């Protein structure tokens, strides 16, 4: 069966009506997350013990390379998925993943690691953005929060599980090659599933567009279907209060993730913890994050988006302060659990905000632009964390992130409006999911 063959069943909106495809896309996104998890525990330790790197800024170059590349790939994922369809973009993203684990296994120097993370950034931008858009396409307007909660829970739950598995494999069999064989298996399986069983969902967005009605309060009157790419970029980045606030909060959220990716294993190693315990500490953050989204995504469909996001950002700031004040396993465990809980409140809810506000015709591009800003946070976090850690120490870098996160919480509270509006059943009679 050809990988490029796309089945086009008659579209119908709803989570229950599209349960099989939705579940398949959840599984595919778990494999996307697994590609990141296989290396997060191992690469900072590999940098020090195999390549002899000691400067934090230099070590974090692979996180910055990943973040910048992923941000750029997000933009093209959104543009191409609106223009050519979702499935071809998903397939292209998985093709970029195949060389990554092989490069990490064979890397003779740190440049190979950075190059592998460039390819990984492309893979993550194309595949994760596309699965997000496809799920929003399938469920229609009334279950966006739940859909995003399930999507992100699968992705970041897989990050946590793969981090644990990679840490175990590294402790038992060495830093290479065993942990990276996970990624090779993930990429091969995902390419098979995406090419053979995933269906195109762009027609679902077109169906929703025919039923689209503006808000009664007139807030979205300027966000009509025929906006140009330049106008969509401006609205999502700066002008539209909810879209821009979501983009800014997303950047800070991933600033924290990027900083944790490069800095937390090194911080935890200062207490002479084993690789396995470091892996456990690192897995707590995405583990709570992933599991929590099973609750927070659907919760935002009931209580709204804005306050959940503001409280979540404030919780992250508090968690970072706890981590900065701690010097051992117990304090760090409390901080990483709290950080995961705050992130779970924010992550699926920000994506639901984009789905609430963006017109179905240009939703893919809006999601892509939001994810550009969000994933630039990886690079900003890596650079901020590396520079502050080199100048003032590891704990000071965590304090800097806490201050930035508190400011982001305040911005959301002041500028964002509530975007979730109840959708009456008669308008979307098929959206029973």
Chart the SSEs and their pairings:
Layout: H1 19-40, H2 42-49, H3 56-59, H4 61-84, H5 86-97, H6 99-106, H7 110-139, H8 144-173, H9 178-196, H10 202-210, H11 229-239, H12 241-269, H13 275-303, H14 306-325, H15 329-357, H16 363-392, H17 394-415
Membrane topology: Multi-pass membrane protein
Subcellular location: Cell membrane
Protein name: MFS transporter
Description:
By secondary structure, this protein is mainly alpha-helical. It has one domain (19-203, 235-422): Growth Hormone, Chain: A. The protein contains 17 helices and no strands. The longest helix has 30 residues, at 110-139. The radius of gyration is 20 Å and the shape is globular. Mean pLDDT is 88; it is low at 1-6 and 424-433. Residues 1-420 form the Major facilitator superfamily (MFS) profile domain. InterPro entries: MFS, MFS_dom, MFS_trans_sf, MFS_Transporters, Sugar_transporter_CS. It is found in: Cell membrane. This is MFS transporter. It comes from Nocardia xishanensis.
Estimated share of beta-strand residues: under 5%
Under the CATH scheme, which class? Mainly Alpha
Class by SSE composition: mainly alpha
Distance between the termini: 31 Å
Order of helices and strands: HHHHHHHHHHHHHHHHH
Please summarize the sheet with the most strands. none
Question: What do we call the CATH homologous superfamily?
Answer: MFS general substrate transporter like domains
Number of domains: 1
Subcellular location: Cell membrane
Membrane topology: Multi-pass membrane protein
Protein name: MFS transporter
Domain Major facilitator superfamily (MFS) profile: 1-420
